[in-house]
Amino acid sequence: MGELHHECGVAAVFHAPGAAVSPMAPIPGDANSVARLVPRMLLDMQNRGQLAAGMASYRADRNALIKVHKELGTVAEAFRLNHKSEFETIMQGVDGTVAIGHVRYATCGGDDRYNAQPFERDHGRRTKWFAFAFNGQLANYKQLKEELLSKGDYHLKRDTDTEIIMHALSYELQTEDVDPDWVGIFRRLSEWFDGAYNIVLVTAHGELIVARDPLGFRPLCIAESGPLFAVASESVPLANLGFQKIRSLEPGTIAIANAEGVRIERYAPSPKQAHCFFEWIYFANVASTLDDRSVYLSRAGLGKELARMETVPLDEGTIVVPVPDTAKAAADAMAFSLGVPSVEGLMRNRYVGRTFIEGTADRAAKARLKYTPLPEVLAGKRVLLVEDSIVRSTTMRALVREIRDRGRAREIHLRVACPPIVAPCYYGIDMSTRDELFATRFAEMDGERILLTEEAQDQMARELGADSLRYLPVDAIARSVSLAPDRLCRACITGQYPTDTGRDLYQIECNPEAAGANERRRAYETAVTAS
């Protein structure tokens, strides 16, 4: 699904000072070379953002104790991975025993290097000198901005919640001594922040601080092996480095790595959780395990749910076709359950990135650029086309047309491995406003429940040019991910938000004529302008 984008991914490594050098160090015997693991980790999380990439490191024998490198583009472009001498020059500048990294897709701030992460807070005192990276989104950005500006002589240069976090950390550090109370700092911040935030931070004292928000919106994985401690938004980067025992950092906890070792403490209560279900069905690498749940098995579970709902007659001319790539696991499981072939009737050009055509071409041209239907596979077939989700529907309309016209499919039955998206996300996913979402025009309210009847789905199918359309029901998500519904954030498919600001913003979205709503909505849209 090309209409939905994630807020980012973070990574970090820490090598204990004075310890024997980890065998995972890229340069044998050189603890400072562990910073070179960060580009590798970011490459394994490229799925989480392709707009910019960067890293910051600490090195004790360097005049610039903290040094940052960040550029627009993919990880390979930002770190010149295809140019050995240029990569070596970059890494010689940012080698170190502690490092953090970030891949970005902007849901807040602009598309320029200035907004790329990590952010560095330079200071003459080492206690107050740090660099950090963040993924998620603060729903109460506007209120935070106003409160910060009211605290004194502050001036904000960027229109992004990342800058708010930087100044909030600086504000909390101003009364701290040489040994900051990071648990207390994040406890106070948790009372201020509303939304999703995973933070990795390196200090000029050579500490690594890692925090996950109390609701656990975004996944965050940690691992230790000897003197090496590492962090990533997904498990795959850690597994590919060779870590064996990978676990999730619990919501509301902080990991502090320094000369005394690694300790994990709770900084805020976490009486409820709100893991974003989209991590399992779309965003994460299919090989990852998040909060002890396999992404692959979750997507396969979605496919089994689709199979149980299927009513279209099955014959030897029926095939299941996934929309590459995230729908493949669901499509394969669905096909296996139904006893029909799962085939690649659509080939995706994986080398198409952000090009000039994105801004000038219509959706049909973009679909032709990204996907090629295979008439040798599709012609004359009844196609069960499996997609992970539908947001605005413009890409899907073009894709269905291509499959029918170029692929010469006899029938196209669209199966969506997700319930209809009927509400925006305020926690780090680039979604449209409610009025722009495809399903909102067809959904009905039954008290607090959102319903989409079979008649409505048939009408939607006609609009998309398909012979039929079926979504998964909301309760299928919890079954597939194997988490209780009250541990998942399902706001975009239920309209039920897990935080006060989310509920408030949705009420504004649904009732734009309410007193004061227009002003508040404009302020919010300015703060979180999607790229």
- Spans with pLDDT under 50 lasting ≥5 residues? 354-360, 525-531
Shape, per Cα inertia axes: globular
**Percent of sequence in beta strands:** 15-25%
How many helices does DSSP assign? Answer: 19
The profile of the biggest β sheet is: 7 strands, antiparallel
Widest sheet: strand ordering: 4-3-5-2-11-10-12
Q: Would you tell me the structural class of the helices and strands? A: alpha+beta
Question: How much helicity do the residues have?
Answer: 25-40%
Distance between the termini: 17 Å
**Average pLDDT, all residues:** 90
Radius of gyration, taken over Cα atoms and rounded to an integer in Å: 24 Å
Strand segment tally = 27
Describe this structure in words.
By secondary structure, the chain is an alpha+beta fold. It is 31% helix and 24% strand. The chain has 19 helices and 27 strands. A seven-stranded antiparallel beta sheet has the order 4-3-5-2-11-10-12. A six-stranded antiparallel beta sheet has the order 6-7-8-9-13-14. Strand 21, helix 14 (394-405) and strand 22 (411-416) form a beta-alpha-beta unit. Helix 4 (141-150) crosses helix 5.
